Amino acid sequence: MSVAREVANWAAGLRPTAEDLELADRSLLDTVAVAVAARNEPVVQAASSLSEAGRWAVAAHVLDFDDLHMESTTHISAVCVPAVLAAGGDARAYLAAGGVLARLGGALGWSHYTSGWHVTTTAGAPAAAVGAGVALGLDADRIATAMALAVPAAGGVQRAFGTDSKSLQVGFAADAGVRAAYLAAAGVSADVSALDQWLELVGGDPNALDLTGPAIPGGIGIKIFPCCYALQRPISALAELAGKVDATRVSRIVLKTPKGTVTPLIHHRPDTGLQAKFSLEYAAATALLDSHQGFASFTDHAVQRPEARHLADLVDVRLGEGDDGLLAGEFEAEVHLGDDVLRVRSRFPPGSPQRPPTREELLRKVEDCLDGTTLDPETIRWSSASRILRDHL
After folding, report:
1. What residues make up the domain containing 337?
2. Domain end position, chosen among 309, 325, 346
3. Total structural domains within the chain
4. So what family is this one in (predicted)?
5. What CATH number does the domain containing 79 carry?
6. Are residues 335 and 362 in the same domain?
7. How are beta strands 315-320 and 252-258 bridged, if at all?
8. I want to staple 329 with a disulfide (CB 3.0 to 4.6 A). Which of 9, 258, 311, 351 is the partner?
9. pLDDT band with cut points at 50, 70 and 90 for residue 374
10. Residue 334, SS3?
């Protein structure tokens, strides 16, 4: 059986557990709130030619505040929530899409990510097709066809990180997936083995596809800070020292972490807020300078602060060996204050699957995202979004 048919059969027959639905409930709320927070971002306004799913996927991802599936290194909800809601779907359709994205990303493997691919978008297009297909009530054969029709859009690279192109790639994936599902529903044909060929061409292993376990295996990490997931651990760890540190006395900052954990952190001396979301050096600066590392910490103005640039210049990054993954090993930091040295270590940041966000942490994030927003259709202009927010707040 082809990968597309195997996956489509699983998605069409998915029966979520109570635990699956709890995860979906949290992800829907988190993603809608993050997307609403970004609705007026310039790149979202510029993406007006995209479909509803595409525009809201751009919004869900541009702030880099969206969730992450650790094992596959994919931003599941930024692609899957807009695709599913635009097609009129529910939690089950979201879980089907998210489960496929997690598993395709896992089959692609860490080497796919370290080769420079943006896995959220390479695996995101066929996963969005699954979610939209389930939302439209397609049978397994039509869902498999939709996945094949989404293959031409299954691309995206990490050089886009720190630019508008990164969130646009996510929008293209969601847009293509929904379009593919509607084409499949209209009876358009495709060779479903195209997905198998694509998977092998981009270095995936079809034999690694495991459809057992929860709908989304391994759970999902919720971000507490609006930046790359690779920065969640460094910021949360160093923030523990902020109250003990006079930034003017810092003479050196030594950061130790396995080399795999910094793969997406490609901007060492950022000039813009977008670049800062992928800078380990700036993460250290904002963790020590700001009492709350929220949206205000990742503006162009914040990045260009002389004190932030000064602290970033004091950072010495030492990369060690270790397992693959953004939370591999342990993060260690030393903040030197003359003859005094403050040390901190961290394994799992708040919001990770191992330390799920508390209800209070999640609601604080949602409130930050909705600051100044009225929950009416004229403000939000996204089907289902107002209802999801009103049901939780």
Report:
1. 229-346
2. 346
3. 2
4. Belongs to the PrpD family.
5. 1.10.4100.10
6. no
7. parallel
8. 258
9. low
10. strand
Within the chain, residue ranges assigned H as helices are: 3-12, 18-37, 42-46, 52-62, 76-86, 91-114, 119-122, 124-135, 140-150, 164-185, 193-201, 232-239, 273-276, 280-289, 300-303, 306-313, 359-369, 377-380, 385-392
d(Cα 154, Cα 126) in Å, to the nearest integer?
Answer: 7
3-state secondary structure of 369: helix
Q: Please state, in angstroms and rounded to a whole number, the distance separating the CA atoms of residues 220 and 50.
A: 27
Write down the pLDDT at residue 358: 87
pLDDT score, position 386? 53
291 to 117, 252, 334, 335, 363: CA distances (angstroms): 35, 20, 19, 17, 19
* 336 sits in which H/E element: strand 331-337
Beta bridge partners, 117, equal 157
Same domain, 340 and 366: no
If asked whether residues 168 and 269 sit together in one domain, one would say no
pLDDT tens figures, 284-325: 999 999 998 999 999 999 999 999 999 999 999 999 987 778
More confident residue, 389 or 182: 182
CA nearest to 196, candidates 151, 152, 138: 151
| 30 and 139 together in one domain | yes
> 288 and 377: one domain?
no
Length of the chain: 393
pLDDT at residue 362, rounded to an integer? 87
* Residue carrying structure tokens 């930024």: 78
- 378 confidence band (pLDDT: 50, 70, 90): very low
Both 158 and 182 in a single domain? yes
- Partners of residue 157 on adjacent β-strands: 117
- CATH number, residue 268: 3.30.1330.120
Whole-angstrom Cα distance, residue 357 to residue 355?
Answer: 6
Between these two residues, 56 and 389, which has the higher pLDDT value?
56
pTM score = 0.85
Percent of the chain with pLDDT over 90: 77
Are 200 and 253 found together in one domain? no
* pLDDT tens digits for range 231-284: 999 999 999 998 888 989 999 999 999 999 999 999 999 999 989 999 999 999
Distances (CA, A) of 109 to 74, 123, 212, 290: 11, 11, 17, 36
**Residue 43 to residue 40: CA distance in whole angstroms:** 8
Q: Do 80 and 217 belong to one domain?
A: yes
Residue with tokens 């961290």: 346
